Amino acid sequence: MHKQYDYIIAGTGCAGLSLAVMLKQSKLSFNKVLLIDKDLKNKNDRTWCFWTNKSSNWFDDIVFRKWNDIYFKDKSFEKKINIGTYNYMMIKGIDFYNYCLNELKNDARFEFVTDTIYSLSSENGLGKLNTATNNYYSKYIFNSAIQTLQKKQNHINYVQHFKGWTITTPENAFDITCPTFMDFRVNQYNDCRFFYVIPFTKNTALIEYTGFSKNRLPTDEYDNELRSYINNTLNVKNYIIDDSEFGEIPMVESSFVNPFGSNIINIGTSGGFSKPSTGYTFYFIQKNIQKIILKLEKGISIKSNSPRKKRFQNYDKVFMEVMDAKKIESREIFATLFKKNSAEELLNFLNEESNLLEELKIMNSVPKKHFITAFMKKMIFGK
Predict the structure, then answer these.
(1) Alpha-carbon distance 83 to 49, whole Å?
(2) FRET label pair with 331: which of 4, 89, 114, 321, CA 20 to 30 Å apart?
């Protein structure tokens, strides 16, 4: 069968559902939007954390917790830090899915199909999505479902991998006024490893073990590190594991190669909107979707969906080169950044909302020898 839509959204995760909700809220006139995914979004399969100083956002109603202070912890530096105009926020996956699906279910313009996507391609000025039973067409297909995208050779390609447990303790064990943004007081294994702690209540929290490396770890290693951190660092001996989550986020030096043609617009992680140097994704997805909606409203072509400003891509390239060279521990870099800069300035920079003068100040605070070497290699010699 041949079916044509105004827009097709392939994948109903964070990017796909965000796009659908923003389409509904936009000034655009359209008749039919198809959302297609192989799975129903009915599980709490992930947690999104991010920071923003915007006073109003479409997702405000589903923010589960927010804070104005964060902990940064390292063997050489530990501090509770106020983040100024920013709020550090957390959204549960199931809350996000339920909110978006409820927003869309009574709007007849949005059609949901549960099916496996076999292929995506561009043909005769249209995007084509193929399943076992149907071919679907649209001028634009927004893809976040197929993530096995081509990476550029001879570039640094890392993965951020993490496993988290939501635990409940019989006694109060957590500071609900402040999450742990990064805790590097763990074995680095010649790598970059840290924990973060997101308190839900005084006796319930998400404890997540995170690594930046070429490959994910064996499952047992995550579990062992989680047990060790909870028992020895948090000094929590008795607890119940209420929930568990695992994820991998590509941290690539350059944009993915789009093999699907110009009518397929990659969004979300597939589009390169997981920040390579930190792995944070949610807020970058929101900013990108807003730009897409604005272009559609103005009738501007979106066949070139550039991930981010070039200079921020270059900053991440240099940072990843420093990480990959392993001449200095990544934990030392992050500790130096938090020691020498205000948290508000640093978070503004990491959100890619800073200006050039602010960026020069932050770059001046990092260990210069290692970063100058990386800059020469990546920016001057192009290796």
Answers:
(1) 15
(2) 89
Type of residue numbered 329: E
Domain coordinates in residue numbering, the chain: 2-70+92-151+256-298, 157-252, 310-380
Q: Give pLDDT tens digits for 268-277.
A: 988 888 888 8
Nearest to 174 by CA among 151, 198, 192, 193: 198
Asked if residue 307 has pLDDT above 80, the reply is no
Read off the pLDDT band of 14 (50, 70, 90): very high
Shortest CA distance to 256 belongs to which of 326, 307, 327, 198? 307
Name the fold adopted by 2-70+92-151+256-298: FAD/NAD(P)-binding domain (3.50.50)
- For 234: left if phi > 0, alpha if psi spans -120 to 50, otherwise beta; the answer is alpha
Q: Which residue has the higher pLDDT, 314 or 36?
A: 36
User: Do you know the residue count of the chain?
Assistant: 383
Mean pLDDT value of segment 291-304: 88
Residue 98 has what DSSP assignment? H
